Amino acid sequence: PYSPCIQDDPDIKRMMAGSTLRKVKSRSWKKQRHFRLLEDGLTIWYKSKWAGKGHSTFSVTEVEAVREGHQSEILLSTAEEFPADLCFTLVFHGRQGNLDLVAESLEEAQAWIQGVRKLIHKAETMDEQERLDQWVRDWFQKADKNKDGKMNFKEVKKLLKMMNVEMNEEHAYHLFKMADKSQSDSLEIEQFVHFYKILTQRNEVWKVFQDYSGDGEKLMLEELENFLRTEQQEEEQSTQHAKQLIESYEPSETVKKQGAMSLEGFQMYLCSQDGSIFKPGLLELYQDMSQPLSHYFISSSHNTYLLEDQLRGQSSLEAYIQALKRGCRCVEVDCWDGSDGEPVVYHGHTLTSKILFKDVISTIKEYGFRASDFPIIVSLENHCGLEQQTLMAQHLTQILGDLLQTSTLDGQVPQQLPSPQELKGKILLKAKKIGGLEKCVDETLTDEVSDEEEMANGDEESPTEEPQAEKKNKKSKLSRELSDLVVYCKSVHFHGFEHAHCHAKCYEMSSFSESKAKKLGKEAGTEFVQYNTRQLSRTYPSGLRTDSSNYNPQDMWNVGCQIVALNFQTAGLEMDLNDGLFKQNGGCGYILKPDFMRDGNTHFCPEKPEERRDYKPRRLSIQVISGQQLPKVNQKEGSIVDPLVRVEIYGVPQDQAKDETSHINNNGFNPVWNATLNFVIHTPELALVRFVVEDYDKASRNDFIGQFTLPFTCIQPGYRHIHLLSKDGMAIPPSSLFVNISISDYE
């Protein structure tokens, strides 16, 4: 299935021949497994040497990277036993755990390390068409039980069912005969790919094509231009764009030479990045990054050290790596006195495991700037005594060196916060500070050291997690060395908007529990928006969420809170919204707030959007046309989905809305809804639109199939495809929705 060159590669050959690798799960669990790459050049298969039937597989497309040597907590903990040059770690996309492996020889380790890297590169550089062909071939391999590379009609029917296709048998048999060029009553893999293509010819795309094509065979340049202007609402440079699209997507050289586009080319364009719902230009870094930090929404994580829930979960450095990879720019570090003098990070008073503070800081240094160059804020939850605080200060300065911003940029007392641009590549510490930046005060501050505990006093939602004895010692001292490292993010107790307006410094910031922030937003929306133009605020989930569930971040963004901390380790609606907002602007973790949330004298109130000076509501009309190759939810033999599409709007309270299509029975393959859903959006600059596909179930809750969330301002109108994501936020090609979107002023 792959181009011949990759099959002949010595590393790939070695992987196909198979190797015995040791799979390591902990210091005590390390077992030999037989691994090999299957003939499709994509699936890695492994089983225990003695177990009978059982085996596991995963696809190379699920692997994000290969780390060489002792590059994971588990391999570091067994470093004495296994030499680094035999060890490697497969890191998966999303929230799936790593696979730590040890080879028997250096050659074997290198063959797997280099081989998997080559396959990842190959998979990443495939275009849409190759990817679809590969997907079809993978299914063929799965279904070809006797491995003779052929399939008769009965087997093909069974395979279509596995692919979520329910179809008319006569129609399918007719197409099967057409594809069976050799008249052998069976299809080989390439014939099956052809059969699949004629089977999936999309009627609804053909109809749109017919509307604009004079001869029904191709779109001439001016016909394509007409389509771009009329349907895709592309006013400027449509000639230029039409030429580019033909150049990029027309497969036939003959048609290309005529400056035209065939139906195949048209369908490829509509399924591509150019035909996607997200404006391609806004995926790049496009915003002004030179405004004060308080003018941006900042992607932020809560309990960053946890991979699971906060009562029993593992504390792990991998959790920091995963959050930073997702573009997170504010991480939380909960520090406690370690028994051997080294501060540790974990969720205090619970059974979560502990990791060393210095290892967390090294991990932030190593992975912090891979997804984005803009500054990282380390939110310190400090529960340590003086000695270990001083040690923390030493670790921070020694490990981070120049990366740590320990003085103001120009030596002056700031009147406003510096910009992400000025702080590129820098790490800021958010913690308590003795005195301010104005003068050097020589006093030891006696103050509660931890923000969240301080908040807990006034927060009826927090369970009391600390023993009484600790409450008495609450007035713990703050180490001068640690205090001196805090510059632009000094944690202070919130004394109300009036007090902040008169006395607060721009570098002072407070943390609010979700209930406190929601309450303030409801009672004093405008004041909260004004406060957030000048100062940073951080919000965090209620202490009652011991399952690490999340609150809806939209309520906090509506009042301009910048650091809305979510449990990145918990997939679901709230993280979908976070991923959706931060997908734009190069995924850099900073999004410029709308202008009416950056002006200190703003009168904007999310509860009353119509009172805004430049209030311009918009009408959003979405025709949900069809779905393509939706994944099966239930792996049971013979079960096929009954899909429906729901569109959800998140934004100011008046914009919160949802509407859905009816469900289509037994068709996850190419369901057609042709349903139009209409919405009015009062504050378009703050709205997010989420498309969810579910498997309808009349007896119980519908099952989730896929979703895609994006800011309203990033939507391209016209005929568009929406490429669905899994619950974990990962792509699930080739699943998509085909929609026609129109946006107009609401009069």
TrEMBL record:
Stated EC number for the protein is 3.1.4.11
Q: Which SMART domains would you find in this protein's record?
A: C2, EFh, PH, PLCXc, PLCYc
Instruction: Please list the residues that bind Ca(2+) 4.
Output: 640, 642, 666
Give cofactor(s), names only: Ca(2+)
One GO CC annotation: endoplasmic reticulum
Chief subcellular location? cytoplasm
Residues annotated as domain C2 = 598-726
User: Cross-referenced InterPro entries, in alphabetical order?
Assistant: C2_dom, C2_domain_sf, EF-hand-dom_pair, EF_Hand_1_Ca_BS, EF_hand_dom, PH-like_dom_sf, PH_domain, PI-PLC_fam
- CDD domains membership: C2_PLC_like (cd00275), PI-PLCc_delta (cd08593)
Localization terms from the record? Cytoplasm; Endoplasmic reticulum; Membrane; Nucleus
Q: Which GO terms describe its biological process?
A: intracellular signal transduction; lipid catabolic process
Which residue ranges does the record assign to the PI-PLC Y-box domain? 482-598
Acidic residues bias locations: 446-464
Name the residues annotated as catalytic in the UniProt entry.
302, 347
- The record lists Ca(2+) 3 as bound by 303, 332, 334, 381
* Membrane topology value: Peripheral membrane protein
> What broad class of enzyme is this?
hydrolase
Summarize where substrate binds, as residue positions: 430, 432, 511, 538
Q: How is the cofactor bound?
A: Binds 3 Ca(2+) ions per subunit. Two of the Ca(2+) ions are bound to the C2 domain.
Give the sugar-modified residues: 182
Q: Where is the PH domain?
A: 13-121
Signal peptide position in this chain?
none
**Superkingdom, according to UniProt?**
Eukaryota
Pfam families recorded? C2, EF-hand_1, EF-hand_like, PH, PI-PLC-X, PI-PLC-Y
Please list the reactions this protein catalyses: a 1,2-diacyl-sn-glycero-3-phospho-(1D-myo-inositol-4,5-bisphosphate) + H2O = 1D-myo-inositol 1,4,5-trisphosphate + a 1,2-diacyl-sn-glycerol + H(+); a 1,2-diacyl-sn-glycero-3-phospho-(1D-myo-inositol) + H2O = 1D-myo-inositol 1-phosphate + a 1,2-diacyl-sn-glycerol + H(+)
Name by which UniProt lists this protein = Phosphoinositide phospholipase C
From what organism does this protein derive?
Oryzias sinensis (Chinese medaka)
